[in-house]
Write a structure and sequence with these properties.
- This protein has 233 residues and is an all-alpha fold.
- The chain has a two-stranded antiparallel ribbon with strand order 1-2.
- The longest helix has 36 residues.
- The N and C termini lie far apart (60 Å).
- Bound molecules: protoporphyrin IX containing FE (2 copies).
- The site of one protoporphyrin IX containing FE (HEM) has 21 residues, from α1, α5, α6 and α7.
């Protein structure tokens, strides 16, 4: 059984850093009070990571690209039908249905992080861009921020359940490759070895990722530090 590299290091670090910062943002908002400051910081980290992932979807390695995530509707439907089978998707990277799930997760987080910038909690905390809009508009956006949090909980629950389901029903360990980067075709599957093309995961790619990440962090810093001094303190 051969193994290939499917996830580059930047994509894997993106994933686990997102897990840490999303967990942090949820825990800190539940504690509330002064911890809201950390809710914001986690939010800025998430914004940076999401911006990075958008760029990486165009210039990252083969299976991290949006062209790989966006399958034709007919392939998504047959991927959904294959859910109940014991073999399922036998190619490398996200399955067509998995690609849709990833795009939904990313979209929900982008919506959450952007609405957070304009939200307020009617007590002491307001997002760094809330001062740019009227209070009633900020209240409306805060409601969207709260409602979308529920969407996020549902998507995250499905995400973890789906991964457990694939392991139980189809014997596919998806977590291992998200940690080590490498995967092999499912045993006894019908996969075509020709489709299992390994990616480059070398220093040149990591440097490219670091430069993109630094630029994304710079953009987020620029956006959230536009608060006028009279409001910042
Ligand atoms: C994707 C990342 C984020 C997640 C998962 C998240 C999650 C949440 C949750 C669960 C709440 C509590 C809602 C409620 O109890 O009704 C909340 C409230 C809030 N968040 Fe976020 N948030 C994120 C990003 C941000 C960002 C980037 C900011 C601002 C910089 C922000 C600012 C706020 C504010 C001001 C509130 C209070 C609004 C209210 O009480 O309705 N959030 N967030
Ligand atoms: C806050 C929690 C989490 C968030 C926000 C999250 C988000 C994501 C995102 C955005 C992707 C797509 C990766 C990409 O292509 O860029 C992904 C994939 C993945 N996640 Fe998570 N995740 C979370 C928790 C977890 C946990 C707890 C596990 C382990 C059980 C996990 C395992 C995976 C795996 C294995 C994949 C790859 C799926 C595949 O091969 O198609 N995630 N996750």
């Amino acid at each position: 059984m051969f193994r290939i590299r499917v996830w580059d290091l930047p994509t894997r670090l993106f994933h686990w850093a997102l897990v840490v910062s999303v967990t942090g943002s949820i825990v800190t908002v539940k504690i509330g009070g002064n911890w809201m400051e950390w809710h914001f910081r986690c939010g800025y980290a998430i914004l940076t990571l999401l911006l990075f992932r958008i760029v990486w979807g165009f210039i990252g390695s083969r299976y991290a690209r949006f062209v790989h995530l966006l399958a034709r509707p007919s392939r998504i439907i047959s991927s959904a039908r294959g859910l109940w089978s014991t073999t399922g998707y036998s190619g490398p990277g996200h399955s067509p249905l998995g690609g849709v799930a990833v795009l939904a997760l990313l979209a929900a987080f982008i919506f959450q992080a952007v609405t957070g910038l304009f939200s307020n909690d009617d007590i002491a905390s307001e997002g760094p861009l809330a001062f740019r809009i009227s209070k009633s508009r900020s209240d409306f956006i805060s409601d969207l921020h709260s409602s979308n949090a529920v969407v996020i909980y549902v998507l995250l629950g499905l995400h973890v359940l789906a991964i457990a389901y694939y392991y139980w029903r189809q014997g596919r360990n998806l977590v291992g490759p998200m940690i080590t980067g490498s995967a092999s075709p499912p045993a006894g599957g019908t996969s075509d070895p020709e489709r299992w093309i390994g990616i480059q995961d070398d220093a040149a790619l990591w440097i490219r990722a670091l430069l993109v990440l630094a630029a994304c962090a710079g953009i987020v810093w620029f956006v959230v530090s536009t608060v006028p001094p009279r409001l910042a303190g």
